[in-house]
């Protein structure tokens, strides 16, 4: 996949490097030439430009980019301006970093669907989430085993837990299901929040908007995602 990472501070730099190591094409941009020089040998492309300058930003390959990550953290204003700029230029998936609750609320009002808090989440965890299509989130219990949140694959919609056969067919355990329910933020804007459904049973039916929470070996989780 192809990514643009805006802001090469500690988090942005670490995320760009890890995404590159996972085999992705990454363009990193920052207005500091020192940061760009430091990373240019570690990622696909490193460019020095001002992310709040529409003319400069318009020259990037937006049509060929799958996901844009706004990783600016030191300057909330620059983060918001860069996010607005990217939304104008890149209609596909945008991920933006939030520093404070009010910052997050502003990003929600801008219809940014995915907001991250790198102070609480590792770049490595996000690199894995972004690289595996269908992976919503994951929590490593050890080097080999994880609990993962995965979007319901289309071909499994309407099937029961028993029909899917997580244990027999995939060597995985289905822990629970998360459903998205509507809620409103301070601006009255509707957003989706997670509601855990409790322990699943063999006759639990998988629905299109559900998120599976599964446990197992990392390799088995990857095989499940790729096979579906």
TrEMBL record:
GO terms for molecular function: monoatomic cation transmembrane transporter activity. Residues 1-116 form the RCK N-terminal domain. Pfam families: TrkA_N. It comes from the Bacteria. Gene3D superfamilies: NAD(P)-binding Rossmann-like Domain (3.40.50.720), Regulator of K+ conductance, C-terminal domain (3.30.70.1450). Residues 134-228 form the RCK C-terminal domain. InterPro entries: NAD(P)-bd_dom_sf (IPR036291), RCK_C (IPR006037), RCK_C_sf (IPR036721), RCK_N (IPR003148), Trk_Ktr_HKT_K-transport (IPR050721). GO terms for biological process: potassium ion transport. Transmembrane segments: none annotated. This is TrkA family potassium uptake protein. It comes from Kaistella carnis.
């Amino acid at each position: 996949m192809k990514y643009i990472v805006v802001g090469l501070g500690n988090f942005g730099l670490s995320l760009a490097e890890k995404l590159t190591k996972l085999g992705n094409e990454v363009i990193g941009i920052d207005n500091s030439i020192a940061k760009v020089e430091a990373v240019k040998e570690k990622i696909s492309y490193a460019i020095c430009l001002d992310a709040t300058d529409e003319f400069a930003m318009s020259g990037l390959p937006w049509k060929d980019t799958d996901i844009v990550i706004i990783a600016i953290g030191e300057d909330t204003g620059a983060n918001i301006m860069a996010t607005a700029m990217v939304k104008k230029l890149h209609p596909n998936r945008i991920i933006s970093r939030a520093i404070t609750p009010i910052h997050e609320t502003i990003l929600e009002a801008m219809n940014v669907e995915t907001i991250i808090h790198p102070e609480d989440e590792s770049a490595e965890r996000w690199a894995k989430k972004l690289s595996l299509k269908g992976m919503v989130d994951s929590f490593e219990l050890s080097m080999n085993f994880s609990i993962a949140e995965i979007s319901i694959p289309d071909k499994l919609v309407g099937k029961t837990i028993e029909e899917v056969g997580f244990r027999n067919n995939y060597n995985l355990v289905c822990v629970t299901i998360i459903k998205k329910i509507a809620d409103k933020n301070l601006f009255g804007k509707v957003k989706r929040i997670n509601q855990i459904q409790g322990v699943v049973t063999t006759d639990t039916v998988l629905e299109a908007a559900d998120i599976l929470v599964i446990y197992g070996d990392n390799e088995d989780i990857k095989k499940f995602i790729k096979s579906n």
